[in-house]
Design brief:
The protein has 315 residues and is mostly beta strands. It folds into 2 domains: 49 residues, Seminal Fluid Protein  PDC-109 (Domain B) (Ribbon); 230 residues, no CATH class. 10% of the residues lie in helices and 31% in strands. The strands form 3 sheets. It has a 7-stranded antiparallel beta sheet. The radius of gyration is 25 Å and the shape is elongated.
């Protein structure tokens, strides 16, 4: 039977240098249900290494190993969503699960009854041709997004795609990696409320929050036509999301937040200034004569959206 030595700490006599395990001898921790605690430190604290060393890098919160020439990081990939090989699968995945994001307050299933760039009536005179959606970069707008295709498009360096011309209408955009960019979305069109749709207002849904592993998360909602005799509410939801493992920074989550005060006008604009984040927008509705969407109701949609995204990214 092998001998046992029980100690709380093993060190060298000088408490510096290295403990050396001779050839054909190894550590076996397979019977433990705990964990190994590895050396850790920042980029600046990396030790001199010869190859085969492993540590936890606290600057980026990843494992890394030295191959004899340079340090390689393991774990979730750094922010690469701008690359087609990552963006296209993300769009495809999110299109497949988008029907499960709505909850109480955002689950009115309006009809998509016109071409891929707008809604015609959407039942109950919800629009007189509205919800034209544009990507925005530094205040400039793209042409109207076509929701019927999920192919990646590009507006002045901003990649974007829609999740299909079906309820709920959603689009996602991303700027180039490691570049601070002011971008977002806008909407335009006619709501057909003719001044009888209540007073449009806006709600800060999240401000630099942590949601489903994403941080920072900033989200903003505009309540447009609502509380008419028969017409359902029309609400624009915008969100910017980053993640610690992406080294995301949001200098301003609400760089541009404007909307038309007329309930007959479908205009709103949202831009944030961020690095290594993505921005998305959704058209949501609370149903006929129900009223505005509250902060908590909008948060449910954002929570569910980001939970799906977190599953896809493995966050």
């Amino acid at each position: 039977m092998a001998s046992k030595i029980k100690v709380d700490e093993i060190t060298t006599t000088s408490e510096t240098g290295e403990l050396v395990i001779p050839g054909n001898v190894g550590f076996d921790g397979s019977q433990a249900n705990s964990s190994w605690k590895l050396p850790k430190g920042t980029d600046a604290q990396r030790p001199s290494a010869t190859g085969g060393e492993i540590r936890f890098n606290t600057s980026v919160n990843r494992l890394e190993f030295y191959n004899g020439t340079e340090w390689f990081q393991m774990g979730p990939p750094p922010f690469a969503l701008y690359e087609d090989e990552y963006f296209a699968p993300f769009i495809s995945y999110m299109q497949g699960v988008k029907g499960g994001w709505a909850g109480s307050g955002t689950n009115y299933q309006y009809e998509t009854d016109a071409s891929s760039t707008y809604i015609g009536d959407a039942q109950s005179d919800m629009y007189d041709n509205g919800n034209y959606t544009q990507v925005r970069l530094n205040g400039n707008a793209s042409g109207d997004i076509g929701y019927s295709t999920t192919a990646t498009s590009n507006f002045s360096g901003i990649k974007y795609a829609a999740l299909g011309y079906s309820w709920p209408l959603v689009a996602i955009a991303v700027a180039q990696t490691d570049v601070s960019t002011t971008y977002g979305f806008s909407r335009s069109g006619d709501l057909g409320a003719d001044g009888g749709g209540g007073s449009p207002n806006s709600v800060t849904v999240y401000s630099n929050a942590t949601v489903a592993g994403f941080n920072p998360v900033n989200a903003w909602l505009v309540n447009k036509a609502w509380n008419q005799n028969s017409d359902p509410g029309v609400m624009h939801l915008y969100c910017t999301a980053g993640a610690p493992s992406w080294s995301s920074v949001t200098a301003n989550g609400f760089t541009t937040t404007t909307f038309d005060s007329s309930s007959n006008n479908d205009v709103s604009q949202y831009q944030s200034t961020s690095t290594n984040c993505f921005v998305w927008t959704a058209l949501v509705s609370n149903g006929q004569t129900v009223g505005t969407i509250s902060q908590s109701e909008a948060q449910t949609f954002v929570n569910n959206f980001l939970a799906s995204a977190a599953t896809h990214f493995g966050l």
